[in-house]
Amino acid sequence: MDPAIQGLKVYVVGGAVRDELLGQPAGDRDWVVVGSTPEEMAARGFLPVGGDFPVFLHPVSKEEYALARTERKSGRGYKGFTFHTGPDVTLEDDLRRRDLTVNAIARAPDGSLVDPWSGRRDIEQKVLRHVGEAFAEDPVRLLRLARFAARFGAFSIAPETMALCRRLVDEGEVDALVPERVWREVAKGLQTGSPARMFQVLQQAGALQRVMPGLVFDEEIAGQLQCAVDAGLTLPQRFALLCRKSPDPEHIGRHVRAPSECIDYARLLPALVEALQELAEHGDSARAPRSEGEAPSPDATHGGVEAWLDLIERNDGLRKPQRFVNLLQAAQCVARHVDIPAWRRRLDAVRAIDAGAVAKEAGGKPEKIKAALRQVRLDALS
Hints:
Layout: E1 9-13, H1 15-21, E2 30-34, H2 38-43, E3 47-48, E4 55-57, E5 64-67, E6 69-73, E7 81-85, H3 91-96, E8 106-107, E9 113-114, H4 119-125, E10 127-128, H5 140-151, E11 156-157, H6 159-170, H7 179-190, H8 195-204, H9 208-211, H10 219-230, H11 235-242, H12 249-255, H13 260-281, H14 302-314, H15 321-335, H16 340-351, H17 355-361, H18 366-381
Helix pairs in contact: 5-7, 5-8, 10-11, 11-13, 11-15, 12-13, 13-15, 14-18, 15-16, 17-18
């Protein structure tokens, strides 16, 4: 028996129990302690880390142990709550404040389940359902519901739960969400197996334009996000695809405080896709040689290779070749038939040029260097 928790009433709660019942690998365990006090936890060597309510780190495992608590609405938004902890708070009281029934199950040390809100039944029936009416008091719960819908794609959302989501929007609670919290949930949702579903749920609840104003989301974008999943694309690539049809992708990224890498991808992808589609319409016949001994295509005029070079330079491919390739991979979900190996060869050909030698040959004069360097790059491509 662990001496740090010997004599305490401790339960594993939430996601670890849910995932175990789903037959999925359990992540980090969250623990609830019933009937204890902050003073007793500190005396046992637990390190307090909670802000609004008492949460402690186990002295050895560093897992989180929270005292059972209740909450009461005291203001607008997800921070507008007053929490109460104490020896009188029961496990059932604590589980009642949780968002979804599938997350309101606890497992006792003897392995038995405490499931007062029938979460196990909802897991078996694949339903995401709120625990109580308090769901409509916390706008983060709408984001979490949408994210869980994306993660558990086979689960439906109970109609009464969706009705509460709409109430969150209608009453303006969703407007109190801070951008950083929106991004945290959006980033998790984009990295699930069905990311489009997150935005479909937000759209269905009437919340999408409130949390990500200006985002254009439709079935085409949904299909491209699923393509990104199938291709194993990264978060910046998926975010760029999500924002691709929006008038101002950069603004959306900055609004939700997305990382600069995600914003850059979102800013660059639409123009790249458009240029690739234009090349495809013209046959992209100016093809680079596929091997060292192969002669250039007879159509490899400077008109064709100029389009290649312009595309590489506009996307800063010379300085950031991997990002350029990553953008091409994302573009494959839109433009299709993007010949990435050919683009890699084009990049390699241009980047192999000794810019210093070209500058020296041009006599060190800036106006001559620029023209000479471009000509050498075009020659390398053709």
